[in-house]
Amino acid sequence: MAIQEIPAKSLDAKKFIEEQVKAIRDAVGQNLAVNALSGGVDSSTVTMIGHKALGDKLKTYFINNGLMREGEPERVVSLFNGLGVRVQMVDAREEFFTALKGLQDPEEKREAVTQTFYKRVFGRLVLETGAKHLLQGTILTDVDETVAGIKRQHNVFEQLGINPEEAFGYRILEPLVQLRKDGVRKVAEAVGLPSSVYGRMPFPGPALAARVIGEATPERIALVRKATAITEEMLASAGAFQCMAILHEDRVTGMRQGKRDFGLQIEIRCWDSLDARRAIPTRLEWETLESLSLRILDEVPDVVSVTYNIAPKPPSTMEAV
Amino acid sequence: MAIQEIPAKSLDAKKFIEEQVKAIRDAVGQNLAVNALSGGVDSSTVTMIGHKALGDKLKTYFINNGLMREGEPERVVSLFNGLGVRVQMVDAREEFFTALKGLQDPEEKREAVTQTFYKRVFGRLVLETGAKHLLQGTILTDVDETVAGIKRQHNVFEQLGINPEEAFGYRILEPLVQLRKDGVRKVAEAVGLPSSVYGRMPFPGPALAARVIGEATPERIALVRKATAITEEMLASAGAFQCMAILHEDRVTGMRQGKRDFGLQIEIRCWDSLDARRAIPTRLEWETLESLSLRILDEVPDVVSVTYNIAPKPPSTMEAV
Fold it and tell me: SS3 for A273?
């Protein structure tokens, strides 16, 4: 059966929330349900709707995969605690870095993050809780992109060759599957989330592993995490659709104490875009680019070179990995 | 004996040329001398002074190492023919690419180009001519940088463990060794060279091999040659000290026909500098950066991403390799 899209402009967010709350209650009954919260707008909205529907019968987990931005795990958990939602933080950093060890290829890295999340860390948690339902923040664009072979988020268990109901005894509920991102943002606002969530920049599924070219070791993730924090802070007022720092694998010549030395390069991308389908590099002020570059050179160890992306999408993509 | 520097401001270029012409004549006598012309300001100036001194008794070679810019070998030879200087072009492309095969490390690439030039291609030519003198465009900065361990151009034979006079029976003359670059430019103008030579942007010894990160194959050199031609053309009017295109080894995600694909990245550098010791990225117009990026994406095969360097020297260097 084809999924019936609800366009953002004809969406009654309050009514949509009520309907989804009822549907979740009807499906889950007196049992437990679980979901994973990443802090992105989709999983945050599902968490709020699920909490409205089930209260303490929804177990919400924040999986710290070691690939999050500076302070992100603590920020997300404390935001939801403030909204009355209990979130359990799970430290799975070692498991993710073990899975990523030695992987250079972007697809293999992506795959390792997905598999570790679903097959190992979160899959194990779901079993431990004995929950009969899993709430997932799939949106219609995820379904489209999965069909087109661009992404593989929708019904990820099926794609991993697992029928969750048969295998584990639980069903997947996807309350947002009729919406696009703009619809989700409306629902997020209506359900009481702050603008820091519903207005949040897009951030990729494999998190900072998608922001290093080559192997995502704890050391390299720490470097790009620092560069990301500086970049997001310095470009916060630029009004861009998305901005990011990327750690290259190539080494370039630099100078240290008057002598030639090889060091690292960080690439900055900052995008103007309406819907992420097309995008152009933001025409930042030269003063901003120069201060950003100096801070990265100063604060991120071993970096001797910083570049700014000047190619549009297409043929570029917004992320580099 | 320390070399006596002649600062540009106290340099009488006409008198300097007369003195060097006399010195070369006195040294060479009725024998043959040889030199290699690259088209750079130093070797061009030596060629002109040597020609003034020796006429047809100076054999000037242009070694085509396959690493030159678009049209450069033909342009240099025809310029000198127009000035009445016969230059013999030597096609050594295969020999250089064979030496560079499989080399990733910048120092090894540099070494391979130097060794192939001196020990093989040019060394062989000098022997074949039976010349007793070799004219070389060493300047005082080369000597300083060799002493400091930054460069290894000065008296390269000695560094390769060869005493040329003992080994081959010829001596090396370095008519420009008392000058810095600004002094050479004054002499170049006075000796009749056009501004396209004495005002030329610096270009590295290993040529385009220094403009690819990783292996310098004929295919990768062809890509960076094309990007270099576009960059130099589009930025000619920017009044920069130096500009360049660099082919990265890292591959980044791009879109082709609506599907994800991995492609190449070109980095543009354009420097404002007085003396190359310190430099800052030129604040180019956004329109210029955007047109440059679009032309490179359009005209250089497999390129999906273009960046602009925004880090100053130091800690960056002007070249990346």
Answer: coil
Give the whole-angstrom CA distance, residue B280 versus residue B315: 11
Distance CA B283, CA A283 (A): 12
A255–B314 CB contact, under 8 Å: yes
Q: What is the ipTM of this complex?
A: 0.90
H or E, element range at B309: strand B303-309
Nearest to A306 among B260, B293, B310 (CB): B310
Neighbours of A245 (CB within 10 A): 28
Token output for B216:
């310098």
Least confident of A160-169, A209-218, B216-225: A160-169
- How far apart, in Å, are the Cα atoms of A38 and each of A121, A247, A268? 14, 23, 24
Which of B254, B280, B314 lies nearest to residue A315, judging by beta carbons?
B254
Contact A106 B250 (CB under 8 A): no
- In the three-class reduction of DSSP (H, G, I as helix; E, B as strand; rest coil), residue B89 is classed as strand
Q: How far is B290 from chain A (nearest CA, A)?
A: 7
Facing A307 at nearest CB: one of B214, B283, B310: B310
The pLDDT tens digits for B251-274 are 999 988 778 889 999 999 999 998
